[in-house]
Amino acid sequence: MIRKNINRILNMNNRISELGFGRYLSQLFITMKLNSSIRMSLLKLLKIIFNPKVYIYSKLYKKKYSSLSKAYVSPDKKSFEFASNQLKGIEALIKHCLIIYNKKKVKIKNNYIPPTFKVIGSINNNGITRAQTKELKPILKFASQPILMNLISNYVGQVPVIFSATLTYTKPMPKNYDPINFQKFHVDMLDKSLLHLVIPIKNISDKNGPFTYVDAPTSKKIMSNLNYQGGRIEDEYIHKYAKKSNIIKLCGSPGKAWLVSPYYCLHMGARVERGSRLMLIICYGSPNMAIEHSDRMHRKDIQEAFINQETSLAEKHLLRIYN
Questions:
Q1: pTM
Q2: Which residues pair with 199 in a beta bridge?
């Protein structure tokens, strides 16, 4: 009996380490049939109780960034559009992403499985490799620039962390192919604080599978009418409630960028009709987010791989390091 209990505890600890505390408890709360808003609130509260240092320091350090700019993410629209080349270092970031993409072209061709190929950003539980660290470091530096830290700190109400940075390649879908996974409208029900920074690395038109979202007020109406608790929504339901003007497609050339809430805005993408899509999405959010992102970048092994004498204070904060 004692051995069984010990094994049960060890299995639970291993599962929590693999999934994350919030993700593990969320699965438990789902079996208890708690609705999404209650699950979210409970998880946030438990995160703060069990790790108050993160909550307190992220609140204190927010003051460092909150007065850097007068710009803000609209509390109603839950989105923000940058002017072309407004973000510092975006040309260097685009060049960096293109170099990595070109190095992996053969690998992408041989291993492509619809709907996309993740060129940068896949980090498994065995740890981050040296090559992955070199790929992600310039993205972390770019993500820590003042205007972004200001906008996102004010939106989140804390110093944010970076959860993931993914560069994905998508080619045209086969004929009669039905959209799957994130090609269907959905919201990311991990935390209310989430913000996606969407950056086209190559020119993206409405035929290249742009990141597409329904504006926040219309998304709220749709989710309310459907009693949405997660999962994918068919287009027919979207068009039943949303006009063409309510559906925004993020098309543009390299140098453009947008911030969008994937929690409050129903969204989808990667429905490429012709050409191809190469897009970088950097995901920010609260350091005590309810449910961990599967590729969370504030794991201890990733923190250790990134930190050196050249790491800025803002970069450390994005990795949830406050000392």
A1: 0.91
A2: 280
CA angle, residues 299, 156, 153, in degrees to nearest 5: 85
Query: Which of 4-30 are b and which e, b meaning 16 or more Cβ less than 10 Å from the residue's Cβ?
Result: eeeeeeeeeeeeeeebbbbbbbbeebe
Q: Which residues lie closer than 8 Å to 80 by C-beta, 6 or more apart?
A: 71, 72, 73, 74, 151, 258, 259
* 248-278 pLDDT, tens digit each: 999 999 999 999 999 999 999 999 999 999 9
Domains and CATH numbers, the chain: 34-318 (2.60.120.620)
Cα dihedral sign for 71, 72, 74, 79? Answer: positive
Token representation of residue 9: 């505890």
| Residue given tokens 């629209």 in the structure block | 77
Amino acid type, 207: K
Listed in sequence order, the residues at least 6 apart from 19 whose beta carbon sits closer than 8 Å to its beta carbon are 27, 292
79's CB contacts (< 8 A; 6+ apart) are: 73, 213, 215, 216, 248, 258, 259, 260, 261, 265
pLDDT tens-digit series, residues 4-39: 433 443 344 444 455 567 777 777 777 887 787 888
DSSP state of 185: B
